[in-house]
Write a structure and sequence with these properties.
- By secondary structure, this protein is of the alpha/beta class.
- It has eleven helices and 14 strands.
- A hairpin with a 2-residue loop joins β4 and β5.
Length: 287
């Protein structure tokens, strides 16, 4: 099946940072979580995907087409919500709806009004009176109301309280339910991704360390907690990353059941997305 979004060798060089041959793809009906520490390249990746910055190398295809081949129609099918919402402060949700209706052929006023009610957004209050969380909800409502097939979210749940964030995650799950829609979701809130993501792409220092199904990470990855003597006997080819903390070593491995059979004297724990990210970022790799 052709992916909704395919990114191949995406590269962008800055004086002090390089997005280095980033590749991943998102199938239909899937949510891809994009993770990495601040400055890892998540927002640069999204901006390059959307042609908001020029790329030095690489190919980005939506439904098998590059954006430049049919920009208006392809953009019509992409909903985008950035971390910083850029609505004019004097606009109201009602006015934003009228502007959007002129901009998008597929704009659905009834759907938009329903989202405003569902998300408890007053249609006639100016955006400048909204909290950051309300602005994020407004951005998501507007993005969903022109009937996109792909939703791209850059830290779009960061300003929401836990209850509203949970409601938004349910909304995202509804969006991909028919298996014709997909979401690329950059987030530093790993519990959100634990709940909704089907795939995780991990960017570190501008490079993709892995792009895998979330269930592979949840059910197969593990952390060996061991002493120095136990660390010394671990097969170094099995180590993805490791970190020494006081008198204990934490070792990330891709097959926790194999590790449990092989290193019975050590404790082997399940690995959360946060655990994996921290060990890669703060730990070391075997040279």
């Amino acid at each position: 099946m052709e992916p909704i979004l395919q990114v191949e060798n995406l590269t962008k060089q800055y004086p002090d940072f390089k997005l280095d041959h980033v590749s991943f793809s998102i199938p239909k009906g899937a949510i891809m979580g994009l993770i990495g520490e601040n400055g890892a390249g998540k927002s640069t990746t999204i901006n390059a995907i959307l042609d908001l910055i020029s790329k030095d190398e690489g190919v980005v295809k939506f439904w098998g087409q590059e954006l430049s081949s049919d920009p208006r129609n392809i953009k019509e099918s992409i909903g985008v919500v950035f971390d910083g919402i850029n609505f004019y402060e004097t606009l109201t949700p009602a006015k934003i709806g009228r502007i959007s209706a002129a901009a998008y052929k597929q704009w659905d006023e009834a759907v938009y009004d329903n989202y405003l009610k569902r998300l408890q957004l007053p249609p006639h209050k100016e955006v400048k009176t909204f909290s950051r969380g309300m602005k994020m909800k407004l951005g998501i409502a507007a993005a969903l109301s022109h009937k996109p097939k792909l939703l791209i979210l850059d830290e779009a749940t960061g300003g929401l309280d836990p209850v509203m964030r949970d409601d938004m995650l349910d909304l995202f799950l509804d969006f991909v339910q028919d298996e014709n829609h997909s979401i690329l979701m950059s987030s530093h809130i790993s519990t959100d991704l634990e709940k909704v993501a089907d795939y995780i792409t991990f960017i570190h220092k501008g490079e993709v360390l892995f792009s895998k199904q979330k269930d592979e990470l949840r059910y197969h990855y593990g952390i060996i907690r061991c002493t120095t003597a136990q660390f010394d006997v671990i097969d170094k080819s099995e180590i993805l990353a490791y970190r020494k903390r006081d008198y204990q070593w934490d070792v990330l491995v891709a097959d926790k059941e194999k590790a449990r059979r092989k290193y019975k004297a050590s404790v082997i724990d399940n690995a959360s997305i946060d655990d994996i990210l921290l060990l890669y970022v703060k730990g070391e790799q075997v040279k």
